[in-house]
Every structure is written in structure tokens, then in C-alpha cells.
Amino acid sequence: MADIIITSVLSMGGLGLLLGGGLALASKKLAVETDPRVDAIIEALPGANCGACGYPGCSGLAKAIAEGKAPVNTCPVGGAPVAEKIAKIMGMDEAIASTERKVARVLCQGGKTEAKVKSEYHGIKTCKAASMINNGPKACPFACIGFGDCKKVCPVGAITMGENGLPYVDEEKCIGCGLCAQECPKDVLALIPEKNEVRVSCRATMKAKDTRAVCTAGCIACKQCEKVCPFDAIHVNNNVAMIDYEKCRNCMLCVEKCPTGTITSTFAERKKAVIIEEKCIGCTLCAKNCPVNAISGEVKKVHKVDQDICIGCGICQEKCRKDAIKMVRNGQKDCDTCTAVK
Amino acid sequence: MAKELFFIIIGSIFVNNFVFSRFLGNCPFLGVSNKTETAIGMGIATTFVLTMTAVAAYFIQNYVLAPFGLEPFLQIVSFILVIASLVQLVEMVILKVSPALYNAFGIFLPLITTNCIVMAVALLIPMNNYNLIKSIALGLGAGLGFTLALALMSGIREDLEFADVPEALRGPAIVFITAGLLSLIFLGFTGLVPLA
Fold first, then answer.
1. What is the C-alpha separation between A317 and A134, in angstroms, rounded?
2. CB A103 within 8 A of CB A174
3. Does any domain span residue B92?
4. Hey, is the C-beta of B17 within 8 angstroms of any chain A C-beta?
């Protein structure tokens, strides 16, 4: 019995040693020089192999980045954190690499009840096919056709079709790959920075009268948004309002002013500035910079924000050197000691 | 001898096709039979590994296991060891010799390690007391049979893409049904070759 145990241990051990040694030798002899950065980049990428970058899988992209053929922030799924990691691997400045997260948004409100239909469509039920016939069944040539090509192409199931025939994007699920924006024949979907909550949900460049005739939710280029914007961030160009996403601070004044409800925001209410009492040293910096004079208070005393006036632009938060101001949305409670005035 | 070799090869390709008659290697059979091109690539890679394994298994069996009387319980363990290292070696050699071929094989090469046809071939050799030449013939035949199965299936599946399949049967369901029908067809080869 002991014999068998010894022979089996020896033979298997010897076999293992032989094969292992052979493999070790082979790996030395047959070693192929690979870029160590490629492996490091593969490690940093999400590894979902979704192909949103346009390369065959994450390893394909890693190779391209290491060879310098693709920029470090090519991965739309990983966004800024992944881009920073890859930038480090590639020895680049992190600041250049960072990208803000973008999400797909629907820039049309012409659903079944809002937009007029000019013809009945009985063909193949895809937006692409429908758009080829007389510019689509809806009277507005810019309107969402509503067969959900975007929903079909979404790799993460972030898009659902609402009852009104318009797509709805779940921004938490959206990975910002832009496939829906590519697929949509009407360019209704667009990638917009996530931090920008306000957008103009219409792209119709017809004259006001013509837009009004085909859709109740279309932009009529009244320019009221332009006048009300404190940051010069919205302008009417070519008969439709456009937001400069760099300048917009989500104050939502234009959303409230828009007579047709064309300008919409992700959230129904704006954020409000609240001052954390313990941290405020009464430097008046916030009050001086507030564009709507919502902040009052004497020097060296705790300041107060008039919640009725505050438009939630967040300038005071940026200016405050003591981190004493928080932007809080109604209903959200992430600050216990804030002097909320309401 | 030549007749016997012919019987072994034809037998393992048609009569005892490892996929359709022995129901081995079903995972890669269903997994990589989407496209004919990749299917044939996988088939060739597997054939190569199978032939190599047959040689290795013959030597392990006759020069390590049999002399020491270890065959009943160490057979599987040692074969797993050999197959795994063999595939590793093959991968390294291909990467060195032909990176293009390596890229073409891609993920299939390491996957072959877990293909149970490889294990079956290794175990069939001592079971039938094959000599070296016969072992190689069995490995080659098994590989060709697997390639044939993959090629047939991928061809059918490519056409199936355009077929009007009932909704409930779409996807893997219709593939399993197709595989079953193919298996029935291969049943017709029974008796073609008098097999040992």
C-alpha cells in the first residue's frame, strides 16, 4: 500500500515537475515582447467588452491606447475615473484626461398628444424605415417618430418607450455610449453632460408659426429665455433656443419662463443654497457674488440665504472659502445644521 | 493495419462522432457555431490539440501509468495535467511562430483545455489498447469529426438567422433542436464500419 502511495506521488510529482519545468523553459524561450502598459490598461478598463469605443473589446482599445492611436479617455463607459487611471499608466497629466460623464437625453416633447400627425404609417415598424417615407409620419420633420430604434440599440436597457410614444432614458443606467444618438434618424437623442439638468427639448428650426402649427411643445423662438438668463447661457439661433452647456448653471429661470414648456429640467425643483452655521465666518463673499442678492448678513455674523430668491446657481458655493454653503434640493436632507429659511 | 486505421478515422468522424453520437464537447459545439469561419478555426485548433494529446496520452499511459500500476486512479489526474500543459505550450508556440494565427484563434485556444472530447480521446486510448499510430488516428479522427460537426452546425445556424422561427423557439432552443436532428441523422451511419 505504501508502495503505491510513494510511486504515485513520485510519478505525478515528477510528471508535474517535468511539465512545469518544460513550460517555464518554453515561456522563456518563446517569450514574445508585449507592452506592459497594455496589460495595465486592460486592468483599468471596465472589462464589459461593450464595443462602445469602436474597438473590438477592451483589449483592442487597450492596445490602441498603448500604441497612441486612441486618446486615453476613449472609453465612454468608464468616464473620468478610468481615463485618469489610464492617463497615469500612460504618464499623462490627469487633468487633461478627465472627462465629464455624459448621458443621452431626449430633445423632443412631440409625443402623441403634442405633435400633429400628417400621415398614417403602415410600414416596417422602425424609425429608420418610417423616416425615409416623406420625412416620417409626424407633421414636424424634427419630431421623434416613436418606434423605439433607440430602445432596441441600447446595450444596457436604459431606454423605455413611454405611453406618449416618446423614449425615456434612465440616466442612472445610461453609460453614455451614444449608440442611441447614432441610431436615431431624427437626431432626437443627444449626449449631454450629466451635470447640465436644463435642456431645450426641441430642435425644430421652422418659424414660430409653422412650429406652433405642428406641435404644442415646440420652441417658438420668443427669446424670453434669452432675456431671463442671468448667465448669458441660452440663445435663440435659427428659430430655436440653444443652451451653452458650459455657461448654464441649472438655475431653471428659463424653464419657468418658457411659455410653451419647451425648456425642461431633469428635476422639477431647483437646488437651493443653504449655509452651514458653524462654518460660516461672515466674510460676505457669498453675498457679494450672488447674482440675485439672495444672501444677506452682517460682517462676521452668520449669513442667511433667502430661499425664495435663491435660484440655485451655486456661485456662492464656489466662492465660499470655508465650505460653509451646500446646495440642497428640496426634500433631500444631507445637511442637519443648515439654516434653511423655510 | 491500414484498414484498421481507416476504420478508426472514419469511425470517429461519422459512426461515433464525438459530438453527435457520444454527446461530448457540447459547450464549444453550441458556443462557437455562430459563424462558419470561427467554427472551422476552432475545429482546426481542436484537431491539432487532439492529435497532440493522443500522442502524449499514449506515452503517459504506456511509460508512466502502466509500468507503475497507477492507471486505475491516476489516469484522469495525469491526463488533465498533460492536456493543460499541452494547450499552454501550443498557445505559446503559436504566439511565437504565427501571431496572426494566434489572433485568429483568440479565446478558443485556452478554451480547448476544457473541451471534454480531449479527455475522452485520452481515456479511449488505454481503454482500446491502441498503439501510437492508432492513437494518432483516433485523435485526428475525433478532431475532424468535431470540425465536421461545427461546420455543419454553423452553416445551418447562419441560415437559421433568416428563418422564420416560432417566437418561443428562438435562440438556444432551436439550436438544441437542430443539434438533436443532426444527431439523429448521424445515427444513420451506424453499421457503416464494424467497430471494435
1. 51
2. yes
3. yes
4. no
Give domain status of residue B107, yes or no: yes
Average pLDDT over residues A254-267: 89
The C-alpha of B105 sits at a distance from chain A's nearest C-alpha, in angstroms, of: 15
User: What is the predicted pLDDT for the residue at A337?
Assistant: 46
* ipTM of the complex as predicted: 0.73
Place of cell 451653452: A244
In chain B, which among 38-77 make CB contacts under 8 A with chain A? 60, 64-65, 68-70, 73-74, 77
Decide if A32 and B95 are in contact by the 8 Å CB cutoff: yes
* Residue B193 within any structural domain of the chain: no
Q: What distance in Å separates the CA atoms of residue A205 and residue A214, rounded to the nearest whole number?
A: 12
Instruction: Establish, for the pair of chains A and B, how many residue pairs have beta carbons separated by less than 8 Å.
Output: 46
Contacts of A8 in chain B (CB under 8 A): 68, 70, 73-74
Q: A36-97 adopts what CATH topology? A: 3-methyladenine DNA Glycosylase II; Chain A, domain 3 (1.10.15)
Residue of A nearest to B63 (CA): A11
- The pLDDT of residue A93 is 60
Residues 6+ apart with CB under 8 A from B79: B57, B60, B119, B122, B123
Instruction: Note whether A19 contacts B96, CB cutoff 8 Å.
Output: no
Choose the mutation target among B83, B89, B102, B103 for the interface with A, i.e. most A CBs under 10 Å: B89
Could you give the percent of chain A with pLDDT greater than 90? 14
Contacts of A226 (CB under 8 A, 6+ apart): A234, A235, A236, A241
- Cα–Cα distances in Å, from A194 out to A178, A239, A242? 13, 26, 17
On chain B, the residues whose CB falls within 8 A of the CB of A22 are 85, 89
Q: Which CATH class is domain A100-194?
A: alpha beta
Taking an 8 Å cut-off on Cβ atoms, the answer to whether A12 and B99 are in contact is: no
User: Rounded to a whole number, what is the distance in Å from the CA of A105 to chain B's nearest CA?
Assistant: 32
The answer to whether A196-206+214-268 and A271-329 have equal CATH topology is yes
Checking if the pLDDT of A289 tops 90, the result is: no
Q: Is the pLDDT of residue B125 over 60?
A: yes
What does the alpha-carbon distance between residue A309 and residue A271 come to, in Å, rounded to a whole number?
Answer: 12
Q: Has residue B63 been placed in a domain?
A: yes
The minimum CA-CA distance between A12 and chain B, rounded to whole Å, is 7
Residue B196 makes CB contacts below 8 A (sequence gap 6+) with B128
Q: Do B81 and A22 touch (CB under 8 A)?
A: no
